[in-house]
Amino acid sequence: MPDMEGFKVAKDYHIDTEFANNSKGFYVKGANNLDWGMKKHLANIFDKNSGNTVMFAFDHGYFMGSVSGLERLDLLIPKLMDYVDVLMCTRGALRTCVPPVGQKSIALRVSSGSSMLNNDLSHEVVAVDIQDTIRCNADCMAVQGFIGADGQLQSINNLSKVINEGIRYSIPTMGVVAVGKDMERTDRYFKLATRILAEIGVNIVKTYYCENFEEVAAACPVPIVVAGGKKLPENEALTMAYHAISEGAHGLDMGRNIFQSLHPVEMAEAIGKIVHEKATDKQAYEFYQDAIHK
Ligand code: R5P
């Protein structure tokens, strides 16, 4: 490992220059050199026309139990699933509440080990093995990455094991940047964490929107999907989504800003307008308003 002294702060992100290894090949960022199976799973996640994805995250129960808006997955998911591209969930939710019909892609949460009752959520294990991931027909495996947290070594170990198994069976891994209570939500932190996860070998990074997001996205050689975070008023959530997509994200992986909205279906559709149809936040919010007043 190089001596940390004398390292210069990274600054040449070439944010106006497109990612260089996709120009004549496969459209998903950083996936041009992968094998057919990996590409097929990534193509199930990322739309071939827009290159982007709307993931609906409802895996919160894996450490929070029942949260507001997710009390009855059996009622919510059938209502919403036609309006998103990917369902991000636990295998428990998948087997009990997700109808095994249609073409929805699955991002399966495979790490676990904490609950809201812990002071430190950063200690996880790999809870779902590759065989069960295959049985669930998942298109990617989601693993929490606690960079800079107490459980960093354990979580990098989890990520590495899942990535190794994923490569063996051609199933992509999505690294989920976890922001612990002592960590700052700065671009400096997100540049560090997203890049570390990509260099470890994940095929997709899930992280948060932040200042200088263009630089975070430019320096990450795989697609970034942005988490929604805490519930915001719909217009603000759409503005965040618009900024994320216009500054280099390849999708949203949104939970509370969809399922805690009074109109989750219309909110999911409005997000889709930004993600797939290049709508502005203003246009998407107009769409949302029109849809809820129909
Ligand atoms: C990630 O670790 C969580 O389990 C959720 O998937 C994630 O936080 C996205 O949901 P939200 O948009 O509610 O933050």
From TrEMBL:
Alphabetized UniProt keyword annotations: Lyase
Pfam families the UniProt entry points to: DeoC
Lyase keyword on record: yes
GO molecular function: fructose-bisphosphate aldolase activity
Cited InterPro entries: Aldolase_TIM, DeoC/FbaB/LacD_aldolase, DeoC/FbaB_aldolase, FbaB-like
Enzyme class label: lyase
Source species, domain of life: Bacteria
Protein name from the UniProt record: Putative aldolase LsrF
Protein species of origin: Clostridium ragsdalei P11
